[in-house]
Design goal:
By secondary structure, this protein is α/β, with parallel strands linked by helices. It is 48% helix and 15% strand. The radius of gyration is 18 Å and the shape is globular.
Length: 215
């Protein structure tokens, strides 16, 4: 089964992708991970991608798509895959469709994990990160004992810039602008399945399993 995972930042896509990967025994393909792996391996496409990544620029669509094309031809993808972080735009979705059609394959379902803006703000703005070891806590869901220091190393906790309320609001607005057309794209193809993301990770996964069992 070939899956695409959609949803706003902070909704838990990475967590659910990992669970789906184990449940269906298919690889979790994160765009960021495969780009870094291609760079690490020094493949021709990886070297091209590195040129942009080192400058802090977005890697062009054609390079990302070519790297994904390479990845889905590997043996562990023969039974399917779950894509996390790609596609992000309709142009990318159309390119992915074309690549898959070359191998007689297609996306079977696009899981759209929904959560409203206030829920995303609650999740992301509550995160605190240890300055020393990078351990992540949450002021609501996973509060350290004294509320200020890491339980692992005693390091001071801080709020990252991209977890501050105004930054989160902006990230959510950008997400809506760029991703909602993609949601409509998969909806028109009758591939979209909406999942209520404003629940615990286990409840969300149980709903995903229910949806997948019907495919």
């Amino acid at each position: 089964m070939n899956l695409v995972l959609l949803g706003p930042p902070g909704v838990g896509k990475g967590t659910q992708a990992g669970k789906i990967s184990q449940y269906l025994n298919i690889p979790h393909i994160s765009t960021g991970d495969i780009l870094r792996e291609a760079v690490k391996r020094g493949t021709p496409l990886g070297l091209k991608a590195r040129h942009y990544m080192e400058k802090g620029e977005l890697v062009p669509d054609e390079i990302v798509i070519s790297i994904i094309k390479e990845r889905i031809q590997e043996n562990d993808c023969q039974k399917g895959f779950v894509l996390d972080g790609f596609p992000r735009t309709v142009v990318q979705a159309e390119a992915l469709e074309k690549v898959l059609s070359e191998f007689g394959r297609a996306i079977n379902v696009a899981l759209y994990i929904e959560a409203d803006e206030e829920e995303i703000i609650r999740r992301l703005s509550g995160r605190r990160t240890c300055k020393e070891c990078g351990q992540i806590y949450h002021m609501i869901f996973n509060l350290p004992k004294d509320g200020k220091r890491c339980e692992l190393c005693g390091g001071e906790l801080f709020q990252r810039e991209d977890d501050k309320v105004e930054t989160v609001r902006n990230r959510f607005r950008v997400y809506l602008e760029k991703t909602l057309p993609l949601v409509n794209f998969y909806n028109k193809k009758k591939l979209l399945k909406k999942i209520d993301g404003a629940r615990s990770a286990e409840e969300v996964f149980n709903e995903i399993k229910r949806v997948l069992s019907q495919k």
